[in-house]
C-alpha cells in the first residue's frame, strides 16, 4: 500500500513511519525539516518532501510517489505553551494545513482515508476520571481550540464530500526521541547536576501516559480496521492514569542517586488537572498496550543517557 505521513519528521512521525515500512508499506512523507538520504532510508521513508502542506507540494509528492490509500496527518502544533505565545502560528500549523490537505483530497484523491492526530486537550478541564469520546469539549488553550477546529473540518468534509477520516485523540505521549516536555526537562536538569528539582504544578495532576512505540502501533491498527462511517473519533489512550509526581519520582529512581522532587503549586495556564482516557475504542480494534509506564520511563532514561555519551 502507498501511505503518506504528514509531519513524518516529527517525534511520533518517525516511529510511525518505521512501523508502517516494517509491515511492507511504501511510505512517503511531507513536512518540515531536512532528512539526509541515509537517515531517510533508516526510518523507512521512500520519499520526503520538505515543505508546506499545500496543493503544489501535494501534487509534486503524488507525481513522485503515487496517490495514497491512507494519509496519516500528524502535522500541526505540538505545544500548549507555544500556542499561547504564538497563537496564529499554531492556528496555521494545525488548522490551515488541515484545510489545505482536505481540499486537495477533495479534488485529487477522494478515496483516500485520513487518520488525523488530534489531542485530549480538546476536552479541557472539569472531567473527573476516565473521559468518554462523547464528553463535552471545552479546550483551555489555543492548542486545544485549534485541534477541535481541525476535527470539525474533518467532519465537515466527511459529511459534505464523503471523505473518510478518523480522528485519534492522543493523550500524554513520551518515549525515545522526545526532546521536550516533562521527561526531557527532568532528565536535562539531572544531567546538568541539579539534584533538588522544583517542578511546576502540584504533582497531583493525572495524565494518561502512553509510550510512542505503542501509539505508532495503535495508529497502524486503526488503519487496519475498515471504517464503517465517513467520520469517527476515538480516544487513543490507555485508560490508566499516573500522577505527574509519580512520573517524576520514577525518572529520578531510574536516573540513580539522591534526588529530591518538589512542586511549586503554580499551575501553568492551559493545563487541566486530569486528562484520562476511557479504553473503550482501542479494545474494539483489537489492540493491547504493551509498554507500561514504569518500563517506558526506564527506557526513556536509558535512551537519554545514551544520547549524551
UniProtKB/TrEMBL annotation:
Source domain of life: Bacteria
Family: Belongs to the NAD(P)-dependent epimerase/dehydratase family.
Residue ranges constituting the NAD-dependent epimerase/dehydratase domain according to the UniProt record: 3-237
Name of this chain's protein: SDR family oxidoreductase
Membrane-spanning intervals of the chain: none
Record-linked InterPro entries: Epimerase_deHydtase, NAD(P)-bd_dom_sf
Pathway annotation: Bacterial outer membrane biogenesis; LPS O-antigen biosynthesis
Amino acid at each position: 500500500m502507498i501511505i503518506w505521513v504528514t509531519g513524518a519528521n516529527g517525534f511520533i512521525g518517525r516511529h510511525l513511519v518505521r512501523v508502517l515500512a516494517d509491515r511492507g508499506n511504501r511510505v512517503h512523507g511531507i513536512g518540515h525539516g531536512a532528512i539526509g538520504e541515509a537517515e531517510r532510508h533508516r526510518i523507512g521513508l521512500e520519499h520526503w518532501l520538505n515543505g508546506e502542506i499545500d496543493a503544489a507540494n501535494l501534487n509534486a509528492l503524488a507525481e513522485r510517489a503515487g496517490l495514497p490509500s491512507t494519509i496519516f496527518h500528524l502535522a500541526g502544533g505540538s505545544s500548549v505553551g507555544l500556542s499561547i505565545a504564538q497563537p496564529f502560528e499554531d492556528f496555521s500549523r494545525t488548522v490551515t494545513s488541515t484545510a489545505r490537505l482536505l481540499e486537495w483530497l477533495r479534488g485529487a484523491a477522494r478515496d483516500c482515508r485520513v487518520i488525523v492526530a488530534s489531542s485530549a486537550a480538546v476536552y479541557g478541564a472539569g472531567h473527573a476520571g476516565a473521559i468518554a469520546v462523547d464528553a463535552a469539549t471545552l479546550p483551555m488553550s489555543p492548542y486545544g481550540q485549534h485541534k477541535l477546529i481541525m476535527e470539525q473540518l474533518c467532519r465537515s468534509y466527511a459529511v459534505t464530500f464523503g471523505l473518510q477520516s478518523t480522528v485519534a485523540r492522543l493523550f500524554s505521549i513520551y518515549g525515545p526521541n522526545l526532546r521536550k516536555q516533562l521527561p526531557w526537562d527532568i532528565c536535562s536538569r539531572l544531567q546538568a547536576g541539579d539534584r533538588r528539582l522544583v517542578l511546576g504544578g502540584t504533582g497531583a495532576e493525572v495524565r494518561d501516559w502512553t509510550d510512542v512505540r505503542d501509539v505508532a502501533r495503535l495508529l497502524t491498527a486503526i488503519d487496519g480496521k475498515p471504517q464503517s462511517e465517513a467520520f469517527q473519533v476515538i480516544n487513543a489512550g490507555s485508560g490508566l492514569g499516573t500522577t505527574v509526581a509519580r512520573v517524576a519520582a520514577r525518572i529520578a529512581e531510574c536516573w540513580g542517586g539522591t534526588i529530591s522532587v518538589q512542586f511549586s503549586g503554580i499551575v501553568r495556564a492551559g493545563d487541566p488537572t486530569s486528562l484520562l482516557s476511557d479504553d473503550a475504542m482501542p479494545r474494539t480494534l483489537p489492540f493491547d498496550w504493551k509498554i507500561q509506564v514504569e518500563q517506558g520511563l526506564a527506557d526513556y532514561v536509558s535512551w537519554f543517557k545514551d544520547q549524551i555519551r
